[in-house]
Amino acid sequence: MNVQEAAEFVRANGIEGPFDAAIVLGTGLGSLVDELTEAASLAYADIPYFPHSGVSGHAGRLVAGRMEGRRVLLFQGRAHYYETGDAGAMRVPVALVKELGIPVLLLTNAAGSVQEKIRPGSLVAVADHLNLSGANPLLRDSTEGRFVSLTGAYDAGLRATLRRAAERTGIELPEGVYAWLSGPSFETPAEIRMVQVLGGDLVGMSTVPEVIIARYYGLKVAAVSVVTNLAAGIEGASPSHQETKDTAAEAADRFKRLVRAFVAELSDV
């Protein structure tokens, strides 16, 4: 991994700091880049050591610009463990956030709800997670830093900022626990019952390894899930990737309003 080379490349191609926040955009949420002014972009495929995402709904672009008077860096799509077999597939992008001196990382995803009260189309702030994948992005890391604490991984101050942003925009934003399973197949109804017993509220195939990497680098992290479906077996649900993309698109307007308000509130962090 050579994050310095990646950083030199993006700076040489018009993407320079300082930035107030970095945001990773999940499935169906990439249209947030349309909210930027003074935008400049690079394809992941052109950036040294960056992963390539092969999932529909993930454009695979790094986009810099201005939102609510602040400079932000958007990752339009991510690489997943299920694509690469590597839980650290997003290590260089997250390390780039650290290298560029960006103080805040907001992760977003499309998730299934394992609770009937959290309906498709809802936005949920992640308060904690369950790593049920059997994988960890810090495997084979030989430094003392690999023993990173994940207590308070989802920064309390940033979650308070999200709550203020939700109140300002009139959007309901409950908090929940996100369970990471590897994918790419959707979970079975029995697995969803397991997640319920363990205290999970949401289930998905991303985000958790990025949080672990971000905490490894000492970054402040928050995460928001867009609920795109009821998880397998709940009210007879049988999820599909098309449903995930369609519902994320339907929730995009409220998602954009929340993120814009969050960025505007960052001066108080």
UniProtKB/TrEMBL annotation:
Q: What is this protein called?
A: Purine nucleoside phosphorylase
According to its UniProt record, in which pathway does this protein act?
Answer: Purine metabolism; purine nucleoside salvage
User: What keywords is this UniProt entry annotated with?
Assistant: Glycosyltransferase, Transferase
Q: Single GO molecular-function term? A: purine-nucleoside phosphorylase activity
BP GO terms, sorted: nucleoside metabolic process
Q: Which SUPFAM superfamilies match?
A: Purine and uridine phosphorylases (SSF53167)
Q: How does it assemble?
A: Homotrimer.
Domain Nucleoside phosphorylase: from-to ranges: 22-264
